From TrEMBL:
Residues 165-274 form the Fe2OG dioxygenase domain. It holds the Pfam family DIOX_N. This is 2-oxoglutarate-dependent dioxygenase DAO. Keywords: Iron, Metal-binding, Oxidoreductase. GO terms for molecular function: 2-oxoglutarate-dependent dioxygenase activity; metal ion binding. The keyword Oxidoreductase applies. It comes from Musa acuminata subsp. malaccensis. The lineage of its organism: Eukaryota, Viridiplantae, Streptophyta, Embryophyta, Tracheophyta. PROSITE patterns: FE2OG_OXY. Transmembrane segments: none annotated. Gene3D superfamilies: B-lactam Antibiotic, Isopenicillin N Synthase, Chain.
Amino acid sequence: MALEDSAAKQKYPKIDFSGLDIASPGKPRWEAVREQVMEALASCGFFEAVFPQVTQELRESLFGTAMKELFALPLDTKLRNTSNKPFHGYLGQIPYLSYESLAILDASLPQGVDSFTSLMWPGGNPAFSEMVCSFSKQVAELDEIVRKMILETLGAEKYHKTLMESHRFLLRVSEYPAAPPKQQQASEERQQLGLVPHRDKNTLAIVCQNQVDGLEMETSDGGWVVVTPSPASFIVIAGDAFRAWSNGRVYSPLHRIMVGEEATRYSAILFSIPEDDMVIRAPQELADDHHSPGFKFKPFDYGSYVRFCVTEEGMNASCQLDAFCGVANQQQV
Ligand SMILES: O=C(O)CCC(=O)C(=O)O
Ligand SMILES: [Fe+2]
């Protein structure tokens, strides 16, 4: 099959979700896909999801019109996208990064998108709001399918609804301008860093791009693999909150963005983010019988973890989650 052939060449899992929705549990295909999802998130923490349920038309209007219009706004306007929480507002103007990004909280709810839109366009921009909201809602369905599949596999599906209720969706839209041409250099040197290597702190991230590659994932031997999603695909990445909640059954991979000199890259990433006061604690069902005390991480509230990540100690940690709450670590939380 074509999907399997290209997956073999890609060196990372590619999973076909076509035709599946959140009402599909129990169908034979749901179970087959669920097995692949668990295997992918356990082994490398990410996979390519073929999800044509989000139409090509919607993707084209997002990347072809809306994002260009948004990033063309004056810097002063974009800087209105602020928040008292880390990673919830404008990011950019960092000298060594070819990167600018805006955050839309509650992007799958009309009032969430509207409050962002009215900051950017005080006169209103209903076309932008409708498009972003409908895109986020459709991608949120993939997020829910993946989370439900993982919980089912872990025998922890009774927590699914409560977990969904204690998360919010944030859509981060990012522009990575093409690197200035440097013809004399080898191709790797013609790339510029778009985003430094990091692990996502939240539960899941679902990345959609404008067919300009640049997302790279760390491989088991410490190298990088460039992900090259098809036009109907998304990249699903697990974050630290999911790693901790699943008692390490799900892995949260290191990734970065490299920018080439051919074209500007745009991405839209839907993050599922625990509420700040949510206590991330793996359920008893996931205790590890073979090792005492059975849990790899001490329980913590999500907001404290994110605040730790932006301290000097957090920024210097090779693995922030282990440093903050790994049971082998003596730090008090
Ligand atoms: O732009 C992307 O493709 C992903 C960026 C990313 O990793 C992030 O914003 O956390
Ligand atoms: Fe990320």
